[in-house]
From TrEMBL:
GO molecular function, one term: metal ion binding
UniProt domain Pirin N-terminal: residue ranges: 64-139
Annotated Fe cation binding sites: H73, H75, H117, E119
Family: Belongs to the pirin family.
Keywords linked to the UniProt accession: Iron, Metal-binding
Segments passing through the bilayer: none
Provenance organism: Marinomonas fungiae
Cofactor(s) it depends on: Fe cation
Highest classification ranks of the organism: Bacteria, Pseudomonadati, Pseudomonadota, Gammaproteobacteria, Oceanospirillales
The protein, known as: Redox-sensitive bicupin YhaK, pirin superfamily
Amino acid sequence: MSAAIKQRLKLQMFWPTFDPFLFCAFHNDRFPEGNGTLGPAASLAGRNIGQDFADINGWRMYHGSKVPGFPAHPHRGFETVTIVNEGFVDHADSMGAAGRYGQGDTQWMTAGKGVQHSEMFPLVYEDKPNPIELFQVWLNLPAKSKMVEPHFGMLWNEQTPVAKLQDNAGNATQVKIVAGAYRTPAGENILPLAPPPDSWAGDTDNEVAIWIIDLEPNAIWTLPAASRGLNRTLYFFEGKSAQMDGTDVSVQEAYVLDSSISAEIQNTGTKARFLLLQGRPINEPVQQHGPFVMNTRQELQQAFSDYQRTQFGGWPWQEHDQTHGKEQGRFAKFADGRVEAPKPS
């Protein structure tokens, strides 16, 4: 077995994660055509509306009743990093921030002392299917940052750095860098877009990395070594077969790796795709109840009390499953009222 592999784990919808990461969900829904009001042009009969996770016909409504997704719900004490490879997400929150993002964009939200947000999946196309593929990663905050002000950030696909590489035979690999600098084999240091100001990822000593790696058939790529003592997990989420340092690795598995050892990956099948999550452990107690992640039970109790009392600022939107209309393109409206759209690459 590859010297880098410490453990291998099977993948389901919710992926195993390790400090400083709390959670990783992979949503891969083959939604049908839209019905004109951003919902599916299909019968919802037989679905447990409000709790539809059954994957009937290859898609789910989740907590949505008309539009799939996650209506308004609270968070405290951590960050959500939502990377949308395909499809769209409509965001709205208690700060007054909003957005429609997708097609490679990343929305990075620091919940801090408390925020409500909704995440709906608008089915904007009425003449063709509306597939969606996304990761939602929960990145913990240390005790000193649990109660910082909430922050809404957007990393547009067009501005997100991508390393485009070739092996000695000319086979291509692409590394999309959501977080964490990447040094290419030629020595180029590719820096990510800035994370939110209070993020654990904001201190480069923590070596937080979130990379999406695509290998064309037969491509060979080396995951470089990092510092010793980081938690590093590589998720093989799409493809057929590959090898790591000559050891066969399988799709729908996660590989917990020794961060101080490089690992050569060779794609031996169709296009292979991996997600890397890496970071220095925070090494603090974690007490979690649903959407609240604190250090002690008393802090959790305070979070519930604060939410019941303040609703984390209330909900300024017309609907708890707020969407942004059929014709709206990708945009971000920030809490200070600024509005931006992605710039051409």
